Amino acid sequence: MIIYDDLDLNAFVRSLRKCNQEQHRRKLAARFGALVLVQQRLVVIKKKLFVQNEDAAWIKEELE
Questions:
Q1: Is 21 strand, coil or helix?
Q2: Domain of 22?
Q3: I need a surface site. Which of 2, 26, 47, 58 has the fewest CB within 10 A?
């Protein structure tokens, strides 16, 4: 799986704005949508990891 960062996302936005051909615009929009989904999924994963880390810290405190 390819993970894109914000720079890739910004490049797609610029390409989308510059694009005049309808077919190319649709193709870029589809790729842009995929990037947004990937980023949202990463945010969810990060939140889950954060919650797990918080839980681990709380459990450690309770044990001490």
A1: coil
A2: 6-63
A3: 2
Place of tokens 């989904």: 37
If one counts the domains in the chain, the total is: 1
CA distances from 5 to 8, 41, 42 (A): 6, 13, 10
Q: Encode pLDDT of 29-42 as tens digits.
A: 677 666 666 666 66
Which amino acid is residue 12, in one-letter code? F
For the entire predicted model, the pTM comes to 0.28
**CB of 15 closer than 8 Å to CB of 25:** no
DSSP letter for 54, please: H
**1 occurs within a structural domain:** no
* Rounded CA separation 24/3 (Å): 22
First-to-last C-alpha distance (Å) of the chain = 41
